[in-house]
Amino acid sequence: MFPQPNRLPRSHNAGTAGLTTLFKALAAQALGLALALILAWMSPALFHGSWRLALAQGAGATLWSGVLRQPYWWLPIHLLFLPMAIAMLTLQLPSWLYLVAVLLLALVFWGTVKGDVPLFLSSNAVADAVAAIVEREHANVFADLGAGVGSVAAPLAQQPAVKVDAWERAPLPWLVTAWRCRKLPNASVKRASLWDCDLARYDVVFAFLSPAVMAELGEKVEREMRSGSLFISSSFPVPDWQPESVVQLEDRGRTQLFCYRL
Ligand SMILES: C[S@@+](CC[C@H](N)C(=O)[O-])C[C@H]1O[C@@H](n2cnc3c(N)ncnc32)[C@H](O)[C@@H]1O
Questions:
Q1: Is residue 162 located within the same domain as residue 257?
Q2: Fewer CB atoms < 10 Å away: N or C end of the chain?
Q3: Ligand 1 test: best mutation among 72, 120, 214, most atoms within 8 Å of CB?
Q4: Which residue, judged by its Cα, is nearest atom 20 of ligand 1?
């Protein structure tokens, strides 16, 4: 088993985490605006015009987002939010386009505002490496926690001997994965939270999530996965755990797969 010094019990609380995330995002935007207005007041010539002010607000909001320790994917959102809003206004697009855009974003990034990990796609190299590990393990039952659009789960389910469960909470990625797996009877695509998944059923579990959830996921893995089964985390190690092996891939992101034997 893995050395796990000084780890305190934690519990998943999406509601509180979500409120904190939302509060931090709004606070970063408001503080960025305050910073931009102070700069404009101190140096009216330099910050003349809405574009400069918007860029200063974006930079300020990004800075505050870092200070408030928001996950890194919030940084470009804060940087571009107001400048993009102004750019869109100048284009004078029909108002229904905004509604469609918001709906699409909500369907893809469903729980992100509540603290869920947003959608990033694994490369083909990751899918190939995971398939090779599953084959080497002679695994019968596999889970992808947060399957996205099925970049790993769908190719793996082409192997009829492996039962693949893809867990995905966001509606649009779930729909894409379900469509990709529609003719694969060994694939089951569940629109459900990975936190509700009973990991005891699986020989190999794969996750590509975020550093923010790895400690909590590690606790779930340790609590539920059977002895001898394998947990693979793409890109993000479980804090304080010693992997059995680390697979270094030569894809564009030089992805590492951290493999933990239970
Ligand atoms: C970084 S993406 C990885 C997608 C896919 N596994 C891959 O490797 O390409 C993380 C995915 O996890 C999903 N996700 C985040 N939190 C989740 C949760 N609590 N339950 C189910 N899915 C979740 C997101 O919607 C997103 O699609």
A1: yes
A2: N
A3: 120
A4: 193
